[in-house]
Design a protein that fits this description.
two-stranded antiparallel ribbon, 6 strands
Length: about 650
């Protein structure tokens, strides 16, 4: 039963959090975390497609009875996120001697995500939301990879800014309805003026967007992920990101359901614009990264932004009375994040395998596929293909649906709506092109190349986990005609439409009608190997036709594969130059000399790209806080006369207020 499975997941994670504080408990905690993830997946499968019944929780928060109830959309996102989390918890952090803090943080994040998916009142929801942030910080700080303190503080500062916006929205709705129960928020929205409801929608977009990586919040992603392991990235990009997305979806389509007219149109257009612009900027910066974790972090922000853009399209369609297209857009967003959770988990764990093999996360051609076997290669290739939207993987299916959704903007009556979705399509096309280049770089530079002598290898357990997740990405795409049935109930409840059923025509996937467009990943899996027979036959013929092989010209010197290998910089430098107005690249060259200046002993080359929002938004805020701290430092001077003067001034103020 669902209730038993979810209870098992919660108590397994709670026990893991407590045991992680004790010494010599690594193995029991590891298995508890993984068992909780497995129980959560089983519970999601049991409750789909109808959703779960309300479960009473045996405690109260702020005098409010707490209950947990999961809609089909929540079960869908939770289940796919926990599949990747299962392998991350089973493998654990690759940093030796740092497992206790990491396991404690992982347990907190999973418990918090479970609450965000299912809790139905504002007070307990905010506690669960903050637990996710606290758990993420504990995982990153516990691993101690580099100087993690500043990135974590930056992450928490932006997340707490979002939490304040979220708190303001919840208090506004609660004050209007007289209750913090989510079931009363729709009535509160109906009682508010359209402008006030729009303001609440923008607060919710800011609050949930801080965890989803919408601009400008995506700038904490590479700093925090780049200070953590791939296991941490798997949890943050899978379960936590899915939970934040579901919370945003729930708020827009349940809490603000009565919002109509110009206010609803404005909110939809803003959500589309925020999603598309965030996806473009995130992928532009992902392409320039030389660290597995930073590249994948920006990619997580990009994929979340695409899903958010689909929520905006859904708002536009619903406001226009096009329930079928609204259901299509909402379903596509969930499909996109399901494939993303599996694919991103595979590549983050592959990055951990690289770290276990060589001690760093740098993207470099070290011949990992040659030294580590086919499981790693198949899993990483399928995951990279999915994130680059290459058929027949799940990412191709979801992005094809994304474009089919925005292409149907011509159904909107307003010119503004049609223009919004047309521009969104152009922006998403740019994002898709950048994603292909980015993951060609990630796989080609990060996995291929000539294996050096005495090459390290990725552990077999890591390779097996990557292989299973990669095959899961393919299974999701191939079985999409079956998987979509799990979302029929959710679409009907939210939009009174049968969009999920109409997205399937036999073994074809269609955007509500086969007359507009269609694909079939299930058939592609059969046809593509047959099409591959021709190049394989040609290759076989060439091998028996006396092909002469000669080494590549290397300037008259002996070829050195390590020196001749393609680097992350050389691969992405052309794009850096073309988009220099965005990147504002910085190059620094210095040299060291022996004796006279023309006897150079060492040449140091360094380069970087400037963040978009850092200098204009975050740096002034940092200077303001530091300036205030410098002035408030007098309060710690230790001067007794100064403290007496403050007390005297306070007494005068109090006396003046009393007399006035």
């Amino acid at each position: 039963m669902f209730a038993d499975a979810i209870a098992l997941a919660f108590w397994a994670w709670a026990a893991a959090a407590l045991l992680a504080l004790l010494p010599r408990t690594r193995e029991p905690v590891r298995w508890l975390l993984a068992a909780g993830c497995a129980a959560g997946v089983v519970g999601a499968l049991q409750a789909l497609p109808g959703g779960s019944a309300a479960l009473a929780v045996p405690w109260r928060v702020a005098g409010i009875a707490v209950r947990l109830e999961m809609a089909p959309g929540a079960l869908w996102l939770l289940g796919f996120g926990l599949v990747s989390a299962f392998f991350a918890c089973l493998l654990g952090t690759p940093v030796r001697g740092r497992h206790r803090a990491w396991q404690f943080g992982a347990a907190l994040s999973l418990i918090g995500a479970l609450g965000v998916f299912g809790l139905r009142d504002g007070a307990s929801f905010l506690i669960a939301w903050e637990l996710m942030s606290l758990g993420g910080a504990a995982m990153i700080l516990g691993e101690g990879l580099g100087a993690a303190g500043r990135p974590v503080l930056f992450m928490l500062a932006l997340l707490e800014f979002g939490a304040v916006a979220l708190l303001a929205a919840l208090l506004w709705l609660g004050a209007t309805s007289g209750d913090l129960d989510f079931g009363s928020f729709a009535g509160a929205t109906a009682a508010l003026a359209p402008g006030a409801a729009l303001a609440i929608g923008l607060l919710l977009l800011v609050g949930f967007g801080a965890k989803l990586g919408l601009l400008p919040f995506y700038e904490w992603f590479p700093r925090a992920y780049g200070s953590a392991s791939g296991a941490t990235g798997t949890l943050l990009s899978g379960v936590v990101l899915n939970a934040a997305f579901y919370a945003l979806s729930q708020s827009l389509f349940e809490w603000l359901a009565p919002l109509q007219g110009n206010a609803a149109f404005a909110l939809g257009a803003i959500v589309v614009a925020a999603g598309v612009l965030s996806s473009i900027l995130a992928m532009l910066y992902a392409f320039q990264q030389e660290d597995w974790r930073c590249l994948l972090a920006f990619s997580s922000a990009e994929n979340a932004s695409i899903a958010v853009a689909m929520l905006g399209a859904c708002l536009l369609f619903r406001n226009a009375g096009l329930a079928g297209l609204a259901g299509l857009a909402w379903t596509v967003a969930l499909l996109h994040l399901a494939g993303h959770a599996l694919a991103k988990g595979a590549l983050f764990l592959a990055a951990d395998g690289v770290y276990r093999g060589c001690g760093d996360y740098r993207l470099a051609q070290r011949g990992w596929l040659r030294s580590s076997g086919p499981a790693l290669g198949v899993g990483a290739l399928f995951a990279a293909m999915s994130l680059a939207a290459i058929p027949p993987q799940a990412g191709f299916v979801s992005e094809w649906y994304v474009f089919q959704t925005v292409f149907q903007g011509f159904h909107l009556a307003s010119f503004g709506g049609r223009l919004t979705l047309a521009l969104a399509g152009a922006g998403l096309a740019l994002t898709a092109a950048l994603a292909i280049a980015t993951f060609v770089k990630a796989f080609g530079v990060g996995m291929l190349g000539a294996a050096p002598q005495h090459a390290a290898h990725v552990p077999r357990t890591v390779s097996a986990a990557v292989g299973v997740l990669g095959l899961g990405v393919l299974a999701l795409a191939v079985g999409m005609p079956v998987w979509l049935g799990a979302l029929e109930g959710a679409v009907h409840t939210l939009f009174a439409a049968d969009s999920a059923r109409r997205m399937v025509d036999g073994w074809l996937l269609v955007p509500l009608t086969a007359k507009f467009a269609f694909i079939s990943p299930s058939l592609l899996v059969i046809v593509m190997p047959l099409l591959a027979l021709l190049p394989l036959l040609l290759l076989f013929a060439w091998r028996h036709g006396g092909v002469r092989r000669a080494p590549v010209w290397y300037g008259g010197m002996r070829e050195d594969p390590a020196q001749a290998a393609t680097t992350a910089l050389s691969f992405s430098n052309a794009m850096r130059t073309f988009y220099s107005f965005v990147y504002r690249p910085v190059t620094r060259i210095s040299s060291e000399h022996a004796g006279r200046e023309y006897f150079v002993t060492r040449l140091v080359f360094d380069y970087d790209v400037a963040p978009v929002f850092g200098p204009w938004l975050f740096a002034p805020a940092t200077r303001l806080v530091r300036g205030l701290a410098d002035r408030l430092r007098l309060l710690q001077s230790g001067n007794l006369n100064f403290y007496l003067a403050i007390i005297g001034a306070l007494l005068v103020v109090i006396l003046g207020l009393t007399l006035w």
